[in-house]
Specification:
- The protein has 262 residues and is of the alpha/beta class.
- It has ten helices and nine strands.
- Strand 1 (42-45), helix 3 and strand 2 (64-67) form a beta-alpha-beta unit.
- Helix 8 (207-214) packs antiparallel against helix 10 (225-243).
Length: 262
């Protein structure tokens, strides 16, 4: 799936995205706080509806800039966070015109829509020496972790249907869990002290909840309306038929933190 899809598809139903996607664990923000300065000047890339923004605000940033390329998502984000003092900029990264420097730059569930080399170069330019870069994803399938029957069944269905997946999936696996790839990319871009952390949280899905979650996925959005409804109906039927109406699964989060050299 072309990266340009990520700049417009999710804003078609920003409210649905916000209500169906999982937030991020408190331990993730604690890990970021341990690696950044107090009250960091912060820029968030691809902030979406603000699911990660809420956690970044617990770090009490002196300033908070939210960059979001999708106009629908940016409007939702602005309604929520501009009254709280954040600056929302509707523009793509890394092309966005923004003044640094920043102590912390972060990106949740959006970095796969960017050209990584160009984005990391711009991040390095905008960070202060010793500044922190944090990037993470939630994964609902394709993470390869044990004890997640919903992930296994959904992955099998997607393979059966030969669904064209977004850039965050390679050979059916979520690339957020390819630590060798991400740590090597960070080192190649000049970052130091790069490390990965993985957080697992149980999540269960009724047929309606599984349907609503899958409706937020880019590869479902791009289907024509009849095909989209048929696919979502299959997801709901799968949960009802194969799991007795309640599918047990995991929301797995992979976090990478690195620093700009002093």
């Amino acid at each position: 799936m072309d990266r340009s899809v990520g700049r417009s598809v999710f804003g078609q139903d920003a409210a649905g995205y916000d209500s169906s996607r999982s937030d991020y664990p408190a331990a993730l923000y604690a890990a970021i706080a341990s690696r950044t300065s107090a009250r960091p000047r912060t820029l968030e890339i691809g902030a979406g509806t603000g699911l990660a923004t809420a956690g970044l605000r617990t770090l009490e940033p002196r300033s908070l800039v939210l960059v979001e390329a999708d106009p629908g998502m940016a409007a939702f984000l602005g309604d929520r966070y501009e009254p709280l003092g954040a600056q929302v900029i509707c523009a793509p990264f890394p092309e966005v015109a923004v003044d640094g420097p920043f102590d912390l730059m972060a990106c949740a569930a959006a970095f796969h829509w960017l050209d990584a080399e160009a984005a990391l170069h711009r991040i390095m330019e905008l960070l202060v020496p010793g500044g922190t870069w944090a990037v993470w994803w939630n994964s609902y399938f394709g993470h390869g972790l044990q004890g997640d029957p919903f992930s296994e069944r959904l992955s099998a269905l997607l393979a059966e249907k030969a669904v064209a997946l977004p850039p965050s999936y390679r050979s059916g696996m979520h690339y957020a869990f390819d630590s060798q790839h991400h740590l090597a990319s960070l080192r190649a871009a000049g970052f130091v002290e790069a490390e990965q952390s993985v957080f697992e949280r149980p999540r269960s899905f009724t047929p309606a909840e599984a349907r609503a979650l899958c409706a937020t996925f880019s590869f479902v959005h791009v289907l024509d309306a009849p095909a989209r409804e048929r696919f979502l109906d299959e997801i709901a039927d799968m949960v009802d038929r194969d799991f007795g109406g309640l599918a047990e699964g995991l929301c797995a989060t992979s976090l990478y933190i690195a620093a700009k050299p002093e």
